[in-house]
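Hey all, sorry for the wall of text incoming. These are the two entities for the joint prediction.
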Amino acid sequence: MGSEKTIAQKQFVTPFNVVAAIIILVGLVITVLRFTKGIGAVTNLDNNNPWGLWIGFDLLCGVALAAGGYVTSSACYIFGLKKYHSAVRPAILTAFLGYAMVVLALNYDVGRPWRLPYPIFYSQGTSSLLFEVGLCVFLYLTVLFVEWTPAAFEWLGLKKIRNWVVRLTLVLTIFGVILSTLHQSSLGALFLIAPSKLHPLWYSEYLHVYFFISSIFAGLSMVIFESSMAHKWLHDKMDETHLAEADGVVLGFGKAASFIMMGYIGIKIIGIAVDNNWHYLTTGWGLWFLVELIGFVLFPAILYSVGSREKNTKLIKIAAIWTILGIVLNRLNVSLIAFNWRLPASERYFPSFMEVWTTIFIITIGVVIYKFIATRMPILYEHPEYKEDH
Amino acid sequence: MEFFTLQDFMTYSKGITYLVMGAFLVFMPLFWLYLTDRDD
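and here's what came out:
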């Protein structure tokens, strides 16, 4: 009995759990400070910089990187690429948790969480892009939740309701693609209102198109990254089908990401040409823009293309991490770094320690919930009772 | 490059844009062939 308890304690007290516990505990203290002392007590936000790290990273990057859900499910169910079926459930779970964390982070930024349903049910600001984003995120989070429930129902043994929800898969996928197209682009369109604040190299009348197209390869890269992480840490939870299809998913998604990234570079150059912004490229901001476009889009696109031609999954996984960093850099450039670029350095925004910690806290909560679900429910394997049921 | 009228600006910027678009329309299928030529 005593030794059993020691084994259970050993299994619970792992390095991951200890680090996660510390991050969550400190995060909870900051949460109390945020909701009792106000946003000014924990952030460096001011009237010049009302949107900081929580919007620039947690929301913009969170939504872009959660695009793997609609990308994978549309590849499988709309384009009929059934060879990617094993990637759907992990992608849906990542997207669901990603969006849930986005909404959680939004509560920290907006405050008064009990007012969260107001824009949807009480006072709709139909002329605002933020209303459109809010409505789409609310609906898409619901769609992702429903898309994820079959795994939970299989785990709970609720066969009837599981079969009923599975019949909705195609409708939910189509709905998810429509909603994602709308709000991924609207997040970029939010910045169309500030042409004098955003640097001309990042500001474009096609900003919404850039956000949508970049969300596709962000989603593809995130699925590759998440799959490689799961292979490393949750290998024992995967069945033979998942293991056999994994390389195909990496190669296929890598190829798709490479092609879309090249197209993205094309429309970015077209954006510069339309506004005749070539002269900005020779400035310091231009150099930074080229670092983003060449270093974090063109370079990983080439890595992806070489990786998929040579069937080198390791190279593709490196390219996926590089692309994710590139997406983060792009969203931070648009929302923080190249935003308010004319302000003197003393008035520029830099996140506080507590803002950064809150971001890490929210990511950690997402990872802990993912681990909890993936180690219990049929996410990385097919439930034996439903093997032929897709 | 100095522009005196909107017409001048549009002619120049749209002209360059169409050239860039043409270049990418040629490049993208070639890149697709490069990506897929080793597929089974």
